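Pinned message: reference record for 6-phosphogluconate dehydrogenase, decarboxylating
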Amino acid sequence: MNKLSDIGLIGLAVMGENLVLNMESKGYSVSVYNRSTEKVDNFVNARGKGKNIQGTYSLEELVNSLERPRKVMMMIKAGGAVDATIEALLPLLDAGDIIIDGGNTHYPDTDRRVKVVESKGVHYIGAGVSGGEEGALLGPSIMPGGSKAAWPAVKPIFQSIAAKVEDGSPCCDWVGEDGAGHFVKMVHNGIEYGDMQLITEAYHIMKDLLELSADEMHEVFKEWNEQELDSYLIEITRDIMAFKDEDGEPLVEIILDKAGQKGTGKWTGITALDLGVPLTLIGEAVFSRCLSSIKDERVEASKILSGPKPQFEGDKKEFVKAIKDALFASKIVSYAQGYALMQAAAKENGWNLNYGGIALMWRGGCIIRSVFLSKIKEAFDNQSSLSNLLLDPYFKAAIDKAQNGWRKVVATAVMNGIPTPAFATALCYFDGYRSERLPANLLQAQRDYFGAHTYERTDKPRGEFFHTNWTGRGGDTASTTYNV
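Predicted structure (C-alpha cells):
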C-alpha cells in the first residue's frame, strides 16, 4: 500500500503540473488526478517519474490517498467546473478536511463557495496564484483567503513552495476571509494589465515618434531594468526587443497588434465601478485591449480618418528620459488606484487586509514583481492608515521629480497623434486628486435642474441638501438623495 500523501492536486495542465513538481521538490508527497486520466499516466511516467508523486484515477481514490486533514487543491478552469468538482468532493471528505481553489476564480464565487463548503464542516481556501509556468515550478506568489481555520494546515506547504524575497520571507501569507485571496489576485491582475499597457505606450512612442529600432529599444529597456523601473515586465520586454525571427528581423514587429484577455482586468474595472473607486488607468488598459481587438475595423478606419504625422524635433536621449518619467509616474498612479480599490473592498466586506504584506507577497514570483513594491511595503509600514500612496513622502517626491517629463510626453503624444490612454488618464487622475475644487458643482447643478437631485452648499454645513426651482415652473419637491 502506498504511503498517504501530504496533499492532492486536481488538474494537470501547465500550472498544475509545475506546482506538483514544486511541492515534491520541497519534500512533500503529492497525489494527482485529472479528469482525462491519460494525463495522469503521461505525467507520472514522464516529468513525475521517480518522484514522490502518486497517480490516482478517480476523486475517491485521490481522497483516500491523503493524510488527514485531507488537503485537495484544484487547478482547473474557473466557473462551473469548480462547482461540479466541489459537489463531487464533499461527500468523500470529512469534517476538518480542506478544499483549495488555486485557479483564477472571480472572488464573489469564492465568497459563495466558502459558505457552502463550511456548512458541510469542510474548510475552503481560495488562493490566488501568480507567476505563470516558471513561477509555479520555481516559486510563485500565493494569496490565500477563505476559512482561516484551514491556514495552519496549509501554511507550511504554501510558504515552502512560494517565491522568497532577499531576507528569505515567503511571498505568501494569509490574506483574509471569504474571497479576499482571490480579490487580491484579481487586483494584482488588473495592475498587471496597467503595467503592460504603460510599457506598450512607451514602446509606441519610441518606435513611431522617435523611430528607434528594436535593438535600440532593447538597450533602453535594459537600462531601465537596472534603475527604479527594475521589474519582471520590463525585463521580459528587454528580451522581447532583442528576439529575432528566422529572417533576422525583430519578432515583435511581426506579431499581429490584437491583444487577448481572460477577464480578470475586466472584473477589476467592474468591481471599481460597483465600489465607486476611480480606477481609471486599469480601466483604460482593458479598453485598449478591446480597441486593439477590432483590428479589421481599425484597418478600414485608417484609410478614411487622418491625423498628424508623427514628427520629432529635439534630443531623443532626453525625450527617452521623459518617457521613463511618464512610465514611472503613471505606474505609481496605477498602484495607488489598485490599493484604493483594495481599501474600499476591505471596508465593504469587513476584511482586515495587510497592505504592506500584500506588497511583500507581490515582491517575488508574480508577474508584477518589482523593486518598486518594497517602497509600497515601507509606505504602509510607516503609516498603516495611509489613504493613498500618492500621499506617502517617497511617492510624492517621485511624482514631483517625474512630473515635467510626464507632462511633456503626454502633450507631445497628443500633438503627434499617438494614443497614450494610460499615460494620459494617470496624469488626469493625479491632477484631479490634487485639486481642491473640481467642476462637479456645475454637474450637480445640472442634476438638480433636470432631476431635482439636490446639492450641498459651500456656505452651509456638510450634509444639508438644497433644491432650486431653476425655471420657475418646478415645485419645491426634491428627489431622494442617494449615491449608487
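Pinned by admin. Summary line: Residues 316-349 form the longest helix (34 residues).
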